[in-house]
Amino acid sequence: MMKNLKDLLLLGDPRLYKICEPVTIDELPQVKEWIADLHHVMEEIRAKYQFGRAIAAPQLGIMKRLIYMNIDKPVVFINPVLENLSEEMFELWDDCMSFPNLLVKVKRHKSLTINYLDENWQPQAWKMEDALSELIQHEYDHLEGILCTMRAIDNQSFKWRN
Description:
CATH superfamily: Peptide deformylase
Number of domains: 1
Number of strands: 8
Strand order of the largest sheet: 1-2-3-6-7
CATH topology: Peptide Deformylase
Order of helices and strands: HEEEEEEEHE
Shape: globular
CATH architecture: Alpha-Beta Complex
Distance between the termini: 34 Å
Largest sheet: 5 strands, antiparallel
Mean pLDDT: 97
């Protein structure tokens, strides 16, 4: 049965703080189902809250190293690894589907390279900058059991979405 918005893990759920396991090649058939679930829930978030560019598998309780991004086209990141993180950082108000009305001010690397396997188990690399770099760092943190609340710049780096 397809997952929906009710399946989205919310701030405080202990699973959001766990490190995810790598996807194995024999799980590749399941990846298509997981991606369908991630896509469906992200569409529901977009309809309800008017945001959402990517979602990490653990946000739906799928404790695997898998990220789904859909900005202008769908991209699947299996077992991603971040490299070449820039020394240059920037600050922004981050949001998260697991606490959709809360914004958190964080610092992120301005650029990086993400190495990953695509949905056909082919190795890929993508150099990202600015908004994409920030987005993938946020989603990658989910795979490591890290929420942006844990990266807040200070104790005044929280505000409600208007």
